[in-house]
């Protein structure tokens, strides 16, 4: 009997030891898996490091590339395109002006009434989807549709302004496709993007096509400016504040433009402008430098994209891509460990996590991160993850957004340095040094785009980094101003500033 009891006791003790051993083993393995996750995230954070020293290297690289792009055609990944815009609105404009914005699946028609003294007395906008069929039709059909829509807009909105009163009005045209500008109001389409394929338009003057369609519809309107959205943003910025020298768009894509001295545009010797300056469209989405903190996730994203080796800067900073970088990191974490539960097939789907959803994860301020849990469930098919894993999600979003915002900041300071508005005098030999005898000129940069306007943490990181790079003495002189709908209103304002009634003042000798 005693032996039996002893046997049972020993058996129980052995079992307990085995169970304890299994549990400890599991815990160790689980700790190890968790440690893998933490290590991978830390490594990711380190590779995306954007210390102020590194940002200053990016600033200098931007300046060098700007010089190279201005020196010769194809001299840099930065195209540094001439816009022929030398006359920006200054707030004194008066009258009614129109704008058309063709940028993707939707297009917009706008009318503004300017009253001088920087005032916008009225502002009407209409949005319309472009029928799919027209995106691959003929240029005549496409522009007929646009002209007809404009005519309907004028008739509908013009209750107190009869159509006849709109005769001879100037129109700004924002056309967000690659265009080789030949004057402020003409340019040929280089190629279509975003699903458009109207073959007979390639290499044709887009303004001429529009102008003809307007005439066919009996609209006596003059297309006075052909611009891209960053130039439109600069125009509104300058209309509202004459100290505005550059504009940046950070939405689905990204771009920047700024006012350059005409004599700095070496690749176009003999460029004469009455103001001595010209707006340069940098097409900065294509900027590249070895100083950019690139990770394996960026390399994979680029390789799998429709345009590998293209738009490298854009792929690190714009709204189209940020969510997808986060998705790639989470995918890697899920492959390395089971802390996200069974591997979700959603994690292999490109662009399944949009940037607005990523921002919602990042900005979830609930104590249990319930919004994060909801997005994980609904978008990524990842269920019941503990709080510490949700925190990892937030952390990854933070790392991706912080890098993006700080790189944009470096790009902005790069532009300011090129035009000697960063307080250092720059490596350029600018005549009008921004920082003279201890006195720094006030400098405004207009910023537009959903990422900047709707993603608060992104905006805060960006503003903070600009101040950090410039230093506390210079930073108060540099102001980033948010522009709502710069691309639309700006085009109408440029039409005002470049109205047909003014003589053309730009010549290429
Ligand atoms: P577009 O660049 O197409 O002209 P917008 O300037 O409105 O349009 O920018 C839209 C982009 O901004 C979206 O593709 C998205 O990436 C980003 N975005 C919009 N809203 C948010 C948000 N709340 N949080 C983060 N990103 C956003
Ligand atoms: Mg836009």
UniProtKB/TrEMBL annotation:
<dbReference type="GO" id="GO:0001678">
    <property type="term" value="P:intracellular glucose homeostasis"/>
</dbReference>
<keyword id="KW-0418">Kinase</keyword>
<dbReference type="GO" id="GO:0005524">
    <property type="term" value="F:ATP binding"/>
</dbReference>
<dbReference type="GO" id="GO:0005536">
    <property type="term" value="F:D-glucose binding"/>
</dbReference>
<keyword id="KW-0067">ATP-binding</keyword>
<dbReference type="GO" id="GO:0006096">
    <property type="term" value="P:glycolytic process"/>
</dbReference>
<keyword id="KW-0547">Nucleotide-binding</keyword>
<comment type="pathway">
    <text>Carbohydrate metabolism; hexose metabolism.</text>
</comment>
<dbReference type="GO" id="GO:0005829">
    <property type="term" value="C:cytosol"/>
</dbReference>
<dbReference type="Pfam" id="PF00349">
    <property type="entry name" value="Hexokinase_1"/>
</dbReference>
<dbReference type="InterPro" id="IPR022673">
    <property type="entry name" value="Hexokinase_C"/>
</dbReference>
<dbReference type="InterPro" id="IPR022672">
    <property type="entry name" value="Hexokinase_N"/>
</dbReference>
<dbReference type="Pfam" id="PF03727">
    <property type="entry name" value="Hexokinase_2"/>
</dbReference>
<keyword id="KW-0808">Transferase</keyword>
<comment type="pathway">
    <text>Carbohydrate degradation; glycolysis; D-glyceraldehyde 3-phosphate and glycerone phosphate from D-glucose: step 1/4.</text>
</comment>
<dbReference type="InterPro" id="IPR019807">
    <property type="entry name" value="Hexokinase_BS"/>
</dbReference>
<dbReference type="InterPro" id="IPR001312">
    <property type="entry name" value="Hexokinase"/>
</dbReference>
<dbReference type="InterPro" id="IPR043129">
    <property type="entry name" value="ATPase_NBD"/>
</dbReference>
<dbReference type="GO" id="GO:0004340">
    <property type="term" value="F:glucokinase activity"/>
</dbReference>
<feature type="domain" description="Hexokinase C-terminal">
    <location>
        <begin position="246"/>
        <end position="496"/>
    </location>
</feature>
<keyword id="KW-0324">Glycolysis</keyword>
<comment type="similarity">
    <text>Belongs to the hexokinase family.</text>
</comment>
<protein>
    <recommendedName>
        <fullName>Phosphotransferase</fullName>
        <ecNumber>2.7.1.-</ecNumber>
    </recommendedName>
</protein>
<dbReference type="GO" id="GO:0005739">
    <property type="term" value="C:mitochondrion"/>
</dbReference>
<feature type="domain" description="Hexokinase N-terminal">
    <location>
        <begin position="41"/>
        <end position="237"/>
    </location>
</feature>
């Amino acid at each position: 009997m005693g032996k039996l009891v002893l046997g049972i006791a020993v058996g129980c003790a052995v079992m307990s030891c085995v169970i304890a051993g299994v549990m400890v083993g599991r815990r160790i393995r689980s700790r190890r898996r968790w440690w893998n996750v933490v290590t991978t995230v830390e490594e990711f954070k380190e590779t995306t490091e954007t210390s102020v020293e590194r940002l200053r290297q990016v600033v200098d690289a931007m300046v060098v590339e700007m010089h190279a792009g201005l020196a010769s055609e194809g001299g840099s990944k930065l195209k540094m395109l001439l816009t022929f815009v030398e006359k920006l609105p200054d707030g004194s404009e008066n009258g009614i002006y129109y704008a058309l914005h063709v940028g993707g699946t939707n297009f917009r028609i706008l009318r503004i009434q300017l009253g001088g003294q920087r005032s916008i007395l009225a502002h009407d906008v209409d949005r319309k989807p472009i029928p799919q069929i027209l995106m691959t039709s003929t240029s005549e059909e496409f522009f007929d549709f646009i002209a007809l829509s404009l005519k309907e807009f004028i008739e509908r909105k013009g209750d107190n302004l009869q159509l006849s009163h709109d005769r001879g009005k100037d129109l700004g045209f924002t056309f967000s496709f690659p265009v080789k500008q030949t004057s402020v109001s003409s340019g040929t389409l280089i190629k279509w993007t975003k699903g458009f394929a109207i073959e007979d338009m390639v290499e044709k003057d887009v303004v001429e096509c529009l102008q003809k369609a307007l005439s066919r519809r009996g609209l006596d309107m003059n297309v006075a400016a052909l611009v891209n959205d960053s130039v439109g943003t600069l125009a509104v910025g300058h209309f509202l504040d004459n100290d505005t020298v550059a504009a940046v768009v950070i939405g689905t894509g990204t771009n920047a433009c700024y006012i350059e001295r005409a004599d700095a545009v070496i690749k176009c010797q003999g460029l004469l402008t009455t103001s001595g300056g010209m707006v340069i469209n940098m097409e900065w989405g294509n900027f590249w430098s070895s100083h950019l903190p690139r990770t394996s996730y960026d390399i994979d994203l680029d390789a799998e994209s429709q345009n590998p080796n293209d738009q490298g800067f854009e792929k690190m900073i714009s709204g189209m891509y940020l969510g997808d970088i986060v998705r790639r990191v989470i995918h890697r974490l899920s492959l390395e460990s089971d802390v996200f539960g069974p591997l979700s097939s959603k994690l292999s789907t490109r662009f399944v996590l949009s940037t607005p959803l990523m921002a919602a994860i990042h900005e979830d301020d609930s104590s249990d991160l319930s919004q994060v849990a909801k997005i994980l469930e609904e978008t990524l098919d990842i269920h019941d993850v503990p709080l510490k894993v949700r925190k990892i999600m937030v952390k990854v979003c933070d790392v991706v957004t912080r890098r993006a915002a700080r790189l944009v900041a470096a790009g902005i300071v790069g532009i300011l340095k090129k035009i000697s508005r960063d307080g250092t005098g720059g490596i350029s030999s600018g005549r009008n040094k921004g920082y003279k005898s201890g006195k720094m000129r006030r400098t405004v940069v207009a910023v537009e785009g959903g990422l900047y306007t709707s993603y608060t943490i992104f905006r805060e990181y960006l503003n903070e980094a600009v101040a950090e790079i410039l230093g506390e003495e210079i930073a108060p002189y540099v102001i980033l101003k948010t522009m709502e709908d710069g691309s639309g209103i700006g085009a109408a304002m440029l039409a005002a500033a470049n109205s047909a009634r003014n003589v053309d003042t730009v010549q290429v000798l």
